[in-house]
Amino acid sequence: MSELSWIFYDGSMNELHAHYRLLLGLDDQWQVQNVDLQMEANSVVIQLRHSGGKLCCPECQDECSRADTAPTRQWRHLDTMQFETIIEAAIPRSKCDRCGVKTIAVPWAAKHSRFTLMFEAFAIKVLHAASSVSAATKLLKLSWKTAHELMQRGVERGLQRRDTDPIETLGIDEKSFGKGQDYVSLMVDLEGSRVLEVVKDRSETSCDKLFDSLTDEQKSGIRAVAVDFWQAFRNSIVKQVPQAKIVHDHFHISQYLGEAVDLVRRRENKLLRSEGINDLTGTRQLWLYNEETLDDATQKQIEDIRQVAIKTARAWGIKEMFRDFWTYRSGAWAKKFFDRWYAWAIRSKLDPIKKVARMLKKHLAGLLAYFEYSITNAKSEAFNGRVQAIKSAARGFRNFENYRTRILFYCGALKMEPDFSH
């Protein structure tokens, strides 16, 4: 190689080293020693070297001497064009009189991470935006396990950074986990539209753990909690935030009434089929509709069936009538309406309807609290839909902690990006 070629090559390499040094945000302690382009492996390895001198203890931040050097490590960085980029370095270890021998912190990666800060930040954005974790892993060229580790690290950072600003309204709900009667309980900040915490089971103790995620100041500021009729949750709310109003909303009540209508339908269908009448068979979904949303064809179908299925039609009418309860502007007028509706439901001679009516009367204070706070668990249920999609995409979760991580990653509104300030 000619002298001119050597000058050109040396100058180009110096520029390349300076380029990567700038991209990595290296301080004066670190230099780019070599850039190794490996064409067959479709990768580029950037080898870094510590410049020497005094070190800083990663624990107490005191200046100290050098003990030795740890074995060479590698970190995955953002791709350079189509090349997978790897950072490689042997990190010095400090000798601190107070903390002992410690591996120093590096400016391009967090402690114990196998990825640079830039790659972690990019991966979190891709995982959050992708249609599924599988799609993200293909884009990032990562294994499912590695992607989950990045999500877990992001969630841990996000929870540590979470603010302790006042929260006035909460939603507490449950979601199935695994098979059988396994559940998780979720706490949702209704105004902030975020899942605050996820715990295993749906007991009073598990609900207490949800409240443990809040500070004492936050708990004292809770004004209302939207919740189902589940007694374990109610007990915990009364104990943890006694000043808060318990609010029952139309979502769960519509669900209970819908189930009661279906139970009446199944019983009547069994009786009609014994008489050779099959009009009610396969109409379960039909009776879940709201009257004002029916198109002409569905309206006619219901009218035709009502001539035969008298009990089911009456149960559906009682369910539909209760929806007027939520249209009142004051609790006093809503209470008068409820008394009239309750009298009709109890006289209906339909045991499933009567059972739900008695349950609603027992919890009437929680129903009327809606007119004071106007909060619902609709956001909690929306998160439940997202949680179900997460569960389905992962084909179920055997490990609760993995399930919790995934829920908080996608629904926690957390600030999960790495800290570049150090």
UniProtKB/TrEMBL annotation:
Q: Known InterPro entries for this protein?
A: Transpos_ISL3, Transposase_DDE, Transposase_HTH, Transposase_Znf
**Residue stretches making up the Transposase IS204/IS1001/IS1096/IS1165 zinc-finger domain:** 56-99
Q: One Pfam match, by short name?
A: DDE_Tnp_ISL3
The Transposase IS204/IS1001/IS1096/IS1165 DDE domain covers which part of the protein?
170-407
Q: Which residues form the Transposase IS204/IS1001/IS1096/IS1165 helix-turn-helix domain?
A: 105-154
Q: Which PANTHER family match?
A: TRANSPOSASE FOR INSERTION SEQUENCE ELEMENT IS1557
From the Swiss-Prot or TrEMBL record, give the protein name.
Transposase
